[in-house]
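Priority: medium. Attachment 1 of 2:
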């Protein structure tokens, strides 16, 4: 969100925000291979893990296809709580990137698997 709404040119601020955005979007590659196998029984482990990884790609495709509709929806600058949302692409991409915030909230509702036996 910060990346799309705060950058207007190529400078050090852009480099900082693109680095943080890259680290955020790639972070799931570190914990998903460790966490997902523990959720599924042995006979369905590969299928469950593959589905969980690739379902995010399906959602990403839907988000990419809706970008044009969001750009059309935010066709003028708007002010919300003293913060200006620029029209078009920056606001549309910020809305789509909020899926990471949803994921950070939902992960707290997932079952704890530390110290438990793997399901058979």
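Attachment 2 of 2:
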């Amino acid at each position: 969100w910060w990346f799309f709404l705060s950058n207007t040119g190529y400078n050090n601020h852009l480099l900082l925000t693109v680095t943080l955005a890259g680290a955020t979007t790639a972070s799931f590659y570190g914990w998903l291979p460790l966490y997902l196998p523990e959720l599924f029984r042995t006979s369905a482990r590969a299928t469950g893990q593959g589905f969980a990884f690739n379902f995010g790609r399906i959602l990403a495709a839907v988000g990419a296809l809706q970008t044009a509709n969001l750009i059309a929806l935010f066709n003028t600058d708007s002010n919300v709580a003293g913060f200006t949302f620029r029209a078009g692409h920056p606001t549309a991409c910020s809305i789509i990137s909020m899926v990471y915030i949803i994921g950070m909230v939902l992960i707290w509702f997932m079952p704890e698997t530390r110290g438990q036996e793997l399901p058979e």
